[in-house]
Structures are given as structure tokens and as C-alpha cells.
Amino acid sequence: MDPLIFHTKAILNTFVKILPIGLYFGTVIMGVLFTDIRAFMLFIGYLFNDFISIGFRQLFQTVDLPNCAIVESNKTFYTLPSSHTQTMAFTLAFFMTDMYVKNNFNPVNFILLTTLLFITMWSRFNVGCESISDTVIASLIGLMIGAVFYKVVDTWNLNSNTDNNKKSDTIEVAPSVEIYQRT
Questions:
Q1: For the range 132-137, what are the long-range contacts, defined as Cβ-Cβ under 8 Å and sequence gap of 24 or more?
Q2: Which of 29, 52, 67, 86 is in Cβ range 3.0-4.6 Å of 82 for a Cys bridge?
Q3: Does residue 142 lie within any of the structural domains?
Q4: What is the mean pLDDT of each run of 10 residues along the chain (183 residues)?
């Protein structure tokens, strides 16, 4: 195999491997630094997504694979409760639903998040963590959870940002100013 292709695949697979951890920490840091409740809500959404995945794993009695591990040692390894594909699909659905509700489509965000989802799907298939059908199912589950979670938190949290973006329908009259001339 060409070394350039080999290294490119290795870099992409490593990036995808740490991507969910980056999303988790990124939302917490953004919430703390900017005191933005939306970042904390997204973090809670990631945790909610993980808890649903734990339920799926218990229900279907899935087996963790060492090549899917985030951290591993000689004797043990640790994988995330939800698949990387499901986490990226959750992120895509959350932000796409936000764009839809606010009627503010951002093509850069759409292209970036969709590309990250497809790179994640390819990477998890490439390293043997998921089959093609697993990546598609995980994507669908993540998309559904992300959209539903957004609609749940939108009613009491994310509306505050949309109120600032709406233009007022009423016309305000400017205060009258009297001009005095010196005589």
C-alpha cells in the first residue's frame, strides 16, 4: 500500500476515534467559558444518546471489540456506550433541526457535519468496528435521537436565541427633538 494512503487513513481513523470525546469536552468548555446553556444542553443530549445506546447494547447483548476502543492497555480496553457514527448523526440532526426551526440554513455547517458523518461511517467500517448496515442503522438512530432531543429542549431553552433574531412588526416613532436657534 502506498505510504501516503496508509498515513492518510491512519490520521483519519485516529481523528474519528477521538472525535466524540472532543465533542463532549468541547460542549462543556463552551458552556463554561461562554456561559451558554445551549452547550450544556447539547452535552446532556450526548449523555442521553449514550444512555439510549446502553439500553440497546443490553437489549441486543452486543460485544465490544478491541479495535473499536478509545483507550486500551495490554489487558483491557474501553469503548464508548454509543457508536461514533451514532454520536455524529446525533450532532448532525441536532444542528440541522436547529437550522430548520430557525429557518436559517447554513451550508458550511451542513457540509462540514455531513462530511464528518460520512468520514466517521467510512472509518468505523474501515477499522472493522461496524459493518455497512451497522453504520446505516447507527446513523438513523442518531438522527432520530438528535432531532427528538432538539425538539424537547427547544421548548424551554433554545427559544431565547430565536427571539433576538426576530424583527419587530411594530414601528416605533422616534422621539421629537426641538431645535433652538440663538438670537
A1: 134/83, 134/85, 135/85
A2: 86
A3: yes
A4: 89 90 93 89 93 84 75 71 89 95 93 96 91 91 95 69 50 61 67
